[in-house]
């Protein structure tokens, strides 16, 4: 070994997410949170560090990070770029630091699975299969340092690189990690419609639909996802202050939401290591404040179909890091303001609830500004998201299964059977079944049907009203068959009895 430690080179081998890391030959692991890892790597030589990686989630990412460190005991130093609470990476990095500072204890995660819970105000979990003795040995063997900026992180890494190289603190160890592979039922791959009153209700329905019929395929990020293509989610009645279930099973809470909403509504200032925010793309990226533009557009032409905001930059093809959220439309119909957003790629388990709440806040802001600046007092209409790739990653499949087991039945049983296609009144007239189709609100007669064969009548009704909901179709089939049976047995027929 030399005084600088650079004559001894080590090879970092990642068990998990290997293609998401930048590898070096040193003894320092650098964790950048949401800050792009290249922002630090470009200031260093491979001999200065062992590995550089990002950490997005305390509930999912720390578990894999810890497992990788246990398999690479030559790592003796840890530099964590922990930004302020204004940035998304504060939660995950803060929780990681709390693991080394405060330790862990046995408990349960937010979905009820027993695990090691990090002693931190920020929820963070490690699989129970990882031995407590190994975790404790890791905590005692690695020297860690918290930094608040890229420049300070770089200086700390270079400082550690000057130390004499040390022998590994142990032998590489790995622990089994169970992966649940879902049983997929047949179903269409393209074009799905899901509707709910609240974001929470709609989210559970989305996860259920993906887990039930989503296609499993490899990702470009060392894993698999289960995916539906072109999923339309419609939220009809989210309250102004947002609905959080009790206990809260959503992957977002009010404090995080407050920070996230500001990244959509506001023109966020430049932050070191952060490429952009949605708010920056909407407010100034293209040289225009697009949010103000659509407000002015609708005030001047309330029926306009061109109140569109664009987040996609053609330069994203060359630079990479293109936004998942691409376009936003605002539309006023019957004094009701709706918002439709398209996503090229959408993590429906971890990201969609926050995406939806941020967009709903944007919709409310635009509605309020129109009211302040004009005579229009618009109602809040639905929020619609269209996700070209609606997916859940394999490291959340277990959590998704537990969410469905705990929440889906109650949500499904409480669902409303209101159908915007209308209502159908069924009667028996002599030897024929007579069906009257009425509007859902006023009860105005739209069309009538008459016949003896219940299956033929059902097919005619569905052909005439192709948007009829599946549950309504099943109900009509049952009632039409009952009416037919009553005719055959000369009994009186009363609908729903």
Strand segment tally = 19
Mean pLDDT: 90
Q: Level of helix content? A: 25-40%
| Ends distance | 88 Å
Helix count?
Answer: 14
Strand content: 15-25%
Low-confidence stretches: 1-5, 84-89
How large, in whole angstroms, is the Cα Rg? Answer: 28 Å
Largest sheet: 8 strands, mixed
Helix/strand/pairing category: alpha/beta
- Assign an overall shape: globular
Description:
By secondary structure, this protein is an alpha/beta fold. Helix content is 34%, strand content 23%. The chain has helices spanning 38-41, 61-70, 89-102, 132-141, 150-161, 199-213, 254-265, 278-283, 290-300, 316-319, 352-373, 397-413, 454-464, 470-488; strands at residues 22-23, 28-31, 51-53, 77-81, 104-108, 114-118, 125-127, 143-147, 190-196, 215-218, 224-235, 307-310, 325-333, 336-343, 346-347, 379-393, 423-429, 432-438, 445-451. Helix 7 (254-265) crosses helix 11. Residues 1-5 and 84-89 have low confidence and may be disordered.
Features:
8-stranded mixed β-sheet; 5-stranded mixed β-sheet; 14 helices; alpha/beta; single chain; 497 residues
Strands, helices and their partners?
Elements: E1 22-23, E2 28-31, H1 38-41, E3 51-53, H2 61-70, E4 77-81, H3 89-102, E5 104-108, E6 114-118, E7 125-127, H4 132-141, E8 143-147, H5 150-161, E9 190-196, H6 199-213, E10 215-218, E11 224-235, H7 254-265, H8 278-283, H9 290-300, E12 307-310, H10 316-319, E13 325-333, E14 336-343, E15 346-347, H11 352-373, E16 379-393, H12 397-413, E17 423-429, E18 432-438, E19 445-451, H13 454-464, H14 470-488
Parallel strand pairs: 2-3, 2-4, 4-8, 9-11, 14-16, 15-16
Antiparallel strand pairs: 1-3, 5-6, 6-7, 10-11, 11-16, 12-13, 13-14, 17-18, 18-19
Helix pairs in contact: 6-12, 7-11, 9-11, 13-14
